[in-house]
Amino acid sequence: GQSGLGKSTMVNTLFKSKVSRKASQPGQQERIPRTVQLHSVTHVIEEKGVKMKLTVTDTPGFGDQINNDNCWDPIIKYINEQYERYLREEILITRKRKIPDTRVHGCVYFVPPTGHWLRPLDLEFMRRLAEIVNVVPVIAKADTLTLEERAEFKRRIQEDLRTHAISVYPQHDFDQDPEERELNDRIREKIPFAVVGADQEHQVNGKRVLGRKTKWGIIEGERSPRGGEPMPFLPGSSHLQDLKDITHNVHYESYRVRRLNESNRPALG
User: Of the candidates 229, 259, 263, which has an alpha carbon nearest to the alpha carbon of residue 84?
Assistant: First the structure.
């Protein structure tokens, strides 16, 4: 997503840690450059006693330029480079028992809270991304919309995605059984998720919660009606492994087949 939509803050909110870099604010010494240069941060998080290594790749400044032609190239190149790295390890005669996995298992796409329709830039970017990675669209800073505006904006985005045949996660094609389809249908009804990022803690009913303080009260990042909606692919959730499985069995497999076909193709004189 573009600058100022709260990507870094949202990542920190979800994992309750400083996983991503600080947001760019006037007066801060550390600023995120307005560029499409990708930046990865690896962090070990703990969920119910289980440790998991998480790598977050931030794409600050995407879509900020006057001319945004092919602005998706660095991101698509990065995703494919991780597939290539995994493939090179996999085809070695003597390979490691556990191949280091730097593949991108999910891409959270931040949509500006305009309340209207998806921009052509968003549609083209998501169309290209959905071919190589699991895309999860979210409405950034959802507390800037009324509940009615939010519901209508979701409906319009869902219509846009259907009209342009953009398959976001969880994809219909990979529902394994009726029970799983029913669960995924409930998730699909909420797409795009409405999110509110906050890295400040506040006291609410005797508990410390992450939220944003306004003159009418505290908007909690996950629990209040005006706040964000919990996403079903966080550490400890059922869909975390699903993201990894689809990445390996579908997106990576597609890349692997294409690359092996290229290497086996006879050179033309």
Answer: 259
The C-alpha atoms of residue 229 and residue 115 are separated, in whole angstroms, by: 17
User: What are 47's strand-pairing partners?
Assistant: 50
Helices 253-264/73-90 angle, 10° precision? 70
Helix or strand holding residue 131 (H, E): none
Residue-wise pLDDT for 115-145, tens only, equals 888 999 999 999 999 999 999 999 998 888 9
Q: Which two tokens mark 30?
A: 């550390």
Give the tokens for residue 253. Answer: 């497999």
Beta-ladder partners of 214: 217
Instruction: State the number of CA atoms in the 13 A half-sphere of 132 facing the CB.
Output: 20
Take residue 262 and report the two structure tokens written for it. Answer: 């290229």
Domains in the chain and their CATH numbers?
A: 70-262 (3.40.50.300)
Q: SS3 of 79, please?
A: helix
Q: Which residue has the tokens 């979210």?
A: 138
